[in-house]
Amino acid sequence: MFSDISRALFRKPATENYPAVRQLNPPRLRSFLKWNQQACTGCSLCAMDCPANAIKVTIIDRKEKRFVFSYRPDMCLFCGQCVESCRQGSLSMVNDMWELASLDKKPFFVNFGDVDDLTKVLAGNTAGGSESPEKA
Ligand code: SF4
Ligand code: SF4
Mean pLDDT across the stretch 23-50? Predict the structure, then answer.
């Protein structure tokens, strides 16, 4: 026991002094989801394949490529399935947005899209058509 104690006294701490000292993010770390509106076709494959039901694609006008992409980072498993499923390459996961804890719910309701379309969706007015797979 004494040898263990004396070893522990002179050993460097195994823990890291986070957040004062930060390690580099692994390049392939899957953190926050990013959506490229220009490439998106509104096919909703990402939403259908998401095992956590963390994605919703609302179609405002398919011809004009007006979509609202809603993402719930608090439900996301960071599995990357949606990125694999998107045939247009419009989804990617950045490696530097992993500190997502929050006391407020607001950061967990993320909506990408044009301002007018976001306003419509947030007001619940999507009369132009909505194809948003909802898995209960
Ligand atoms: S990373 Fe996985 S859980 Fe997260 S939105 Fe994509 S498919 Fe869903
Ligand atoms: S799978 Fe890709 S193209 Fe289809 S709705 Fe999702 S992000 Fe858009």
Answer: 96
